[in-house]
Amino acid sequence: MKVNKQSFTIIGAIICIRLLFGAVQNTVSIYSESMDKDLPCLIILPDEYKDSALRFPVVFLLHGYSGNYNNWSEHTDLGNYADRHKMILICPEGGYNSWYLDSPMDANSQYRTFVGKELVQYIDLNYRTIPRREHRAITGLSMGGHGALYLALEFSNNFGSAGSMSGVVDLKFTTKKNELGEKIGSFDNFPDRWVQYSINSNVIKFKETKTQLIIDCGVDDAFIESNRLLHKQLLKLNIPHNYSEKPGGHSWDYWVNILDDHLIFFNQVFMDH
To answer: Measuring CA to CA, how many Å separate 185 from each of 34, 68, 103, 111, 199?
Structure first.
């Protein structure tokens, strides 16, 4: 096959321009003491980070079931979001089927502690963040939507804002019951755990944490009814939140389209503080 050298030159120039003038994306390996292993994490620094001493707010972006730390970057240009919103984006490895819980069944699945505590500490120690809960947010899709709200409750001193896109907010309605059972035990044997870890069973806690919330779901999504119930519970308890339903289902088309809504919401919270 004949190689077009001119094409390579143009592509190379584009890459160089991106590196010089755009956001910087790095994959780093971070040690988790709770699991005694290294885990990959994608870190996106806005363009302004390179040539300034400024500190930046941070948004943690969680993947869904069967995904990995690279999923978001495979479907959209995260550097563009980091540059436009002037924030650091963190995409951690959350495990194939962790649900961002500390599993009582699997010592190698302690992702509550890793993402909610160890990773936050690592990022603040190694990057110019604004190390306050008011300037730190977490959001995610599906399993990651559950994870973001759950971690915001578990580590309310770390996260001032949280979001959920198509979140599995009631674990009883997951389509992955067998897989989740591997982490917390089957529903038949441990029904209390399925309630304990579900967001819809813990809504009142948001009244105490005063977390700034953004929650949405596609109208064609299998989890729309449990998200509507979450919305109703929040309203009943007079807990402020941003809730919306948009066209679409449980798909990357939906999540990519809604991501900017979450980042705009978080940015407003950051600016208010």
So the answer is: 20, 23, 9, 17, 18
pLDDT for 62-119, tens place per residue? 999 999 999 999 999 999 999 999 999 999 999 999 999 999 999 999 999 999 999 9
Those residues whose C-beta lies under 8 Å from the C-beta of residue 104, and which sit 6 or more positions away, are 184, 185, 193
d(CA 68, CA 23): 21
The structure's pTM equals 0.92
CA distances, 116 to each of 4, 119, 136, 138 (Å): 48, 7, 11, 9
Residue at 3 is within a domain: no
Instruction: Please give the structure tokens belonging to residue 47.
Output: 């363009």
Cβ-contact 94, 100 below 8 angstroms: yes
User: What CATH number is attached to the domain comprising 184?
Assistant: 3.40.50.1820
Kindly tell me the burial class for residue 245, based on how many C-beta atoms sit within 10 Å of its own C-beta (0-12, 13-18, 19 or more): middle
Position 21 scores a pLDDT of 60
Confirm whether 47 is domain-assigned: yes
